[in-house]
Amino acid sequence: MGGMMMNGALTRLLYEMDGIGEPTFWERLQARVYRIFGKDPPKRDWHVMFMGSTNRPDVLDRALLRPGRFDQVIKVERPDRVGRREIIKGYLDKIKHDPNQININDIVADTPHTTPAQLMSAITKDAVRRALFSGRDYVIQRDIDQALQEQLVGMANPIKDMDPLQLRQVAYHEAGHAVIQHYVLPDQRISRVSIIRRSSGALGYMLPVDTDEIYAQPLRRMVGQIMVSLAGHIAVKVFMGEFWTGATGDYNNARTMLRLLAMHGFFGPPVSELFTDIKELRFTDERVEQYWIQLEERVEEILSIHADEVEVLVEALLERKELSNQEVLALLGKNRLQLAREEGREFESVLEQLVLKPEELLHQKIAAARSKVHPVELTSEPEETKIPESQNP
Predict the structure, then answer these.
(1) 174 an active-site residue?
(2) pLDDT at residue 389, as a whole number
(3) How far separated are the first and last CA of the chain, in Å rounded?
(4) Which residue of 31, 58, 286, 389 could cross-link 41, Cys pair, CB 3.0 to 4.6 Å?
(5) Which of these, 223, 183, 231, 239, lies nearest to 384 by C-alpha position?
(6) Three-state DSSP class for 315?
(7) Which residues face 198 on adjacent strands?
């Protein structure tokens, strides 16, 4: 029932909804009989609640949403960790699986912002299909992991005779993403790194997932995501001597994130185009371009510092074609979050590990002043993972 389409069905529905409070023929007749005998007609002892659902609220006719009709909208969000855990358990109960070879917590961690329909399809259909193709009548963790990967990046479509130099370029590209991801955004978990071509057209991918559900984030985290996007292209230049193709999607992501930073005032108050519709805004300020160049230089510096780890990752990818989270972590050094946990340091959120300076945590200083206790001392960010400051004038 889209807007501007006042068809018969919509007209009839609105007629019924608006007229639900009017007495029916039999109620009017009953009222007349009661009045003949000098009695008050009985009042209605029932109510009607109209409920509807849609996954396309943008195409609903506005007449439906007026007061007295569907005027209360309840948006059903995607399930959080607790919800996903129960959904996953429910769908696992519907299939034959080996509980000793399935880690529900890992599945929950790898599926942030996933819908129930996606979980159902991955567990009860795609994972079962993979198990049958592997000659088993039960599902294991790898089946579910691969099913989830297929949803995100497509089915595996390997190139069996790919030129070795081109394959190495893909490996450097994905290794660059992985190293910067590990050190710049330690709050995310590298789920998988692969150089197997997918049906989506991607020659490889590095898949990060949030360790905590993210609903709001510091702008510095968005800067880190830009650095991760740039890292693949920069890694190819650093280790192979020149740029190759393959960065179109990464650069689109970087441009999108830079635009969001500008809209959130990262480069100063975004008032240069105050009277322009938000969809038409264009941020061409040279400060944005200069910041992009600074980020590229910082990414290149970090990759050079961790060159040995990049090379180790590349060789492992060329040998195995795909690396899991544990396999990647075994080849990389400790990042800030890992070091903080090993030292037993307490912190309120993993996002604190993105903060460069302890004094930036003003809420900790205020809490400490109130309790007359010195604030928790946070070590400053390691030199190799610092993020360039914003270009506020």
Answers:
(1) yes
(2) 64
(3) 50
(4) 31
(5) 183
(6) helix
(7) 156
